[in-house]
Fold these 4 entries.
Entry 1:
Amino acid sequence: MKSNFKADLSKEQRLTPLLDTYYQKHLKNYEFERVSNLKKQRQGIDLILKDNQSGNTYFVDEKAQLDYINESLPTFAFELFYTKNGMQKQGWLFDVSKKTHFYALVTNIYSDEADVFTSCNITFVNREKLILRLHELGLNQSFLEELALDHKEVHGKLVLEGLDPKKEGYLYFSSTNKVEKPVNLILRLEFLNRIGVAKRLI
């Protein structure tokens, strides 16, 4: 079991120029500012978007599938819980200390032989809308927390009553292969688009 924090950080830094190019091209009505302040990043802010028409400001947390370079996955993992020093901690989806308005889900990340990232897809997810829709499906924070505690020895997929595991999503426990033992809600990108909480940028 290992933690890939440093390797992921290096990949994230190499991915940034490609993402910025896409934002400039596809978010023409917005000004964007990349955040380097660690405190803000810990609050779930990688990017600040300002709408030139309304003047509204949005905080964006970038989430990239860096473990799956040159692969195309139809799903994305939303972190519900993880373990630190033997204690279950709140994952980023329901963490009230996070100020995130939107997740920028970076998928289908491709790189060439020189390890330069050449293309990717970006899907924006409205965090508040997603949590609301999950709540409507009976998948609120307290229910999922209870479920995670009841099944903490489980490893692998757990089917949820409110979701079709093939078309929508399921819970996934990484109890034996990751140090942090994360519990993730795996959701299909197509499902997120269909329920009106996500929009693909590219």
Note: The chain has a mean pLDDT of 93.
Entry 2:
Amino acid sequence: MTETLPNWHKSTYSGNDNDACIEVADNLSRVRVRDTKDRARGELTAAPAAWAAFTAFARTCAV
């Protein structure tokens, strides 16, 4: 059986006090990202390779 619904989880880089949280669903053919507090704003989607490149870059910029 193929998974058809996004499996959302809180990003490990989200704030601990829920002030800046995003959720990521990476169980489908596209990676989806949304704001935990304002899900009605929709979501961003990216190809898995593009998401991997973005997160690798973001790790080098983390302060």
Note: The beta strands are 8-10, 22-25, 31-35, 43-46.
Entry 3:
Amino acid sequence: MKAGTDHLTSQIISTYSVGATVQIVLDRLFAKIRSEEYPLNARLPSERALASEMGVARNTVREALDVLEARNVIKRRPGSGSFVTYRSEDEVPEREESSVALETSPLDHLVVRGILEPEMIRLAVINMTPREIWDLEQLMSKIEGVHTDVAAFVKCEEEIYRKIAEGTHNPLLASCYNLAIEACRVSFRTTLLRRHLSPKRILEYQQRYNALFNAIASRDVERAVEFIKLHLVEEQKLFLQN
């Protein structure tokens, strides 16, 4: 195996963000993909089948697939399954920022959010154009339509935060926050949300985001920043409970 491939492998199956059992599943799945037992475009067995084959719980397999998808090794297609997209390091060059995301611990992620989000919200309130606020309103309507689908809810959340980051009109800040979103995908939060994002909690989050949007739309900087600080406190509580 090429040294470069060894390096890529170590990044994809990094132990920074997953538990030991998930790590074992990652190792085995990626080995099968790299050896082309599951070649490019092949459909992986179902979560149930993989869990049975490896003697682990389905949520363990799901966490491993989350990491593989975040690293562009597989692609999930709703209703169809998971398909191999991995080629080789030469064909799909490793992005340095992806490596950083994988090496970011849960605590690191929360600290960075605490630094970025208040200032991001402040600048967005000041700088968002009427059209950008209208676009954000459409995303808020979209997330309000999600009641039980955790994956769909998380995707809507990402779209909302990206739109707010773009609304700062600060490309560097928006780029930094995009990296924070990528780190979030491969960090603890995906697992926590699958465990705790019940329909009731989804409703609570929707109410929070509605309050945030109202503060942004009314150009109330102080209220918007205070909201995001309180929201981050709730996120930290959720982390500390686990």
Note: The longest helix spans residues 106-127.
Entry 4:
Amino acid sequence: MRQPAMPAEVGITSLLFAIGTVMPWIMPSVTGMYLYAGIAGFGYGVYSAIDQALNVDVLPNKEEAGKDRDRSFTPAFAISIIMAVCAAVFVLRIQKVK
């Protein structure tokens, strides 16, 4: 049985994200952007995983987790697909970069 997620872990990963976000500010260079992407990306990725685990830990009935969604998320997925396609169209319309 796994150990429940701790709020302190969420706080630590949030700090990692913040530290990564500071990198381009204190080091305005390509290296600063790489550090930002690496540190903030790692912090956010771990944060997301821990946050999801914490969400499951606070469910009233863990055996029924995910079974009560019904079709309520269908519009959210449809909208997400439409927005991703729109974003791709707008990016592809860029003629040149200064």
Note: DSSP finds three helices and no strands in the chain.
